[in-house]
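User: Please predict the structure of the protein below. I'd like the answer in structure-token form so I can feed it into my own downstream comparison script.

Assistant: Understood. Taking the following sequence of 100 residues as input:
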Amino acid sequence: MTSKNFTAAEKHFNKKADAMRREMGELRGRCSRLAAENARKDEQIAVLEAEVAQLKDWNERLLNFMELDPKHVKAACEKDRMALAMLDMLRSFSAIGARI
């Protein structure tokens, strides 16, 4: 093998190595973008799963209300209203306590 052939082979090897390095960089960038997109999708899935759970809860409550007579439905609604009022009151107390 002459010196000239070795240099040509070496140039060919370096050219291929450079092409592979570029491709690896592109693939790493693509991998990073896909990982970020997957993280965003995971967050969206968590939000949607929470919404599904809430809707299932509401559906279950509505199905239970269908089985009750109107008097019991009114009582359950009033109980929910009172619970929300208490929660609002506790929140305002905690806001006052946080300012002190």
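That's the full token string. Helices lie at 3-67, 70-99.
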